């Protein structure tokens, strides 16, 4: 952990000169938070919840501090981590309260956030600081070199009125590009941009109409079908306009075509749909974030068509997948044709309803080189509302097409899995009458230790498109209630794998 700053250091941090004006000093708590965050940005090091610093060299793991073995496909990881660096920001401070924001939970602060962000950007960048209080707002649009810093005791509460997320912006909705309601926090085409903690983002989704849009055959279904038809038939994106009068829920935090992105330290609660959603972005860090979601289809973190992504030290109590790597849907995903690659997930806790580590189902642009290690499934000290169904969940079909090549999982521990340890299917949702070629290969699980599941493996390849190269090694599974189910799978191997005390022979 960072040492407490001296009074002089705190004052220096709290009273910074910005554009020739000495800003009002921050409280000691705010000054300390800023100093700790700035030190982390300068060093590029992440700090675990136990206080052990882990450089981005990949030379140590947070769980043990011991050197990790980077052999085989894992040899790529140190190079990936060396390219991932949190953005750095000038030490200028712009408090939203200096631009008219009121933290009483009732006053609408959208103009104040907009003014503070604009001033920070014009000055060459810095930190837009949200002090203690509850700040109600509509959409927040970030600019380059701006860190939105939510201090301890501060909450950004998002309006339940869909009109506060207009005008529409270019976004991606379940893997198809469209103009829709703005994500609650949004950036397009920006560089060096961040949202940092230790405060809270509250989507207040249960206070808005979002749930009624999809429950009980709600109106979202018709717009969902229309958008998918537009993507399938090649309707120009400029004509795919939804928003007012339509019912496609917005995402919570979305960075679109951005570089050098960070989301750090925050608690994010009650999002209307996917929570943290970087799209077509590179050099992305998501660290020490807690997600608590309740509405349907509220994934935790969904990097889509992204490269060089680190998700570390996060906790996901979600009503859908915890981490889901994506790359576009069906024909529109092939039109954009950008894969997700070089994704590293470390030291996370998964308590979500479906997959812990997930790939797909929107994977038409391709996914390769995904690495996840040292994660916990259904940890007893972080119970979720729903147990994880699949620690590893890979979803593809012939409607999506595309390929998944290289999903590497190791050092997962846990308990109480609702269904299977690993469910890899190339026939997701019954195939959806697709005819495109699809490829899934190179799935590796190593050093897993999980107690309680229906089965270890459920592998579903296709007669026309076999699932290939699935390998389990050095793992122990107990409390397994049923045998594996393996269909149309080539080159399945086991090495030192024990199920209910018995070593699994080679198939």
SSE topology:
Elements: H1 7-14, E1 17-18, E2 21-22, H2 28-43, E3 46-47, E4 53-54, H3 77-83, E5 93-95, E6 104-108, H4 110-122, E7 126-130, E8 133-137, E9 140-141, E10 146-150, E11 154-158, E12 169-173, E13 176-180, E14 185-188, E15 191-196, E16 200-202, H5 210-214, H6 220-233, E17 253-256, E18 259-264, E19 267-269, E20 276-279, E21 282-287, E22 290-292, E23 307-312, E24 315-317, E25 323-325, H7 330-336, E26 340-346, E27 349-350, E28 355-359, E29 367-373, E30 376-377, E31 390-395, E32 402-410, E33 413-415, E34 420-425, E35 438-446, E36 449-453, E37 455-460, E38 467-480, E39 485-487, E40 489-499, E41 502-503
Parallel strand pairs: 5-7, 6-8, 7-10, 8-11, 9-14, 10-15, 11-16, 14-17, 15-18, 16-19, 17-20, 18-21, 19-22, 21-23, 22-24, 23-26, 24-27, 25-28, 26-29, 27-30, 28-31, 29-32, 30-33, 31-34, 32-35, 33-36, 34-37, 35-38, 36-38, 37-39, 38-40
Antiparallel strand pairs: 1-2, 3-4, 12-13, 40-41
Helix pairs in contact: 1-2
The biggest beta sheet is recorded as: 25 strands, mixed
Number of helices: 7
Structural class: mainly beta
What low-confidence regions span 5 or more consecutive residues with pLDDT below 50?
Answer: 1-67
Envelope shape: globular
Number of strands: 41
Q: Give the assembly state of these chains.
A: single chain
**Helical percentage:** 10-25%
Q: What percentage of the residues does DSSP assign to strands (E)?
A: 35-45%
Radius of gyration: 23 Å
- What's the average pLDDT? 89
| First-to-last CA distance | 48 Å
GO molecular function: hydrolase activity
InterPro entries: GH28_Enzymes (IPR051801), Glyco_hydro_28 (IPR000743), PbH1 (IPR006626), Pectin_lyas_fold (IPR012334), Pectin_lyase_fold/virulence (IPR011050), RHGA/B-epi-like_pectate_lyase (IPR024535), TAT_signal (IPR006311)
Family: Belongs to the glycosyl hydrolase 28 family.
Protein name: Glycoside hydrolase family 28 protein
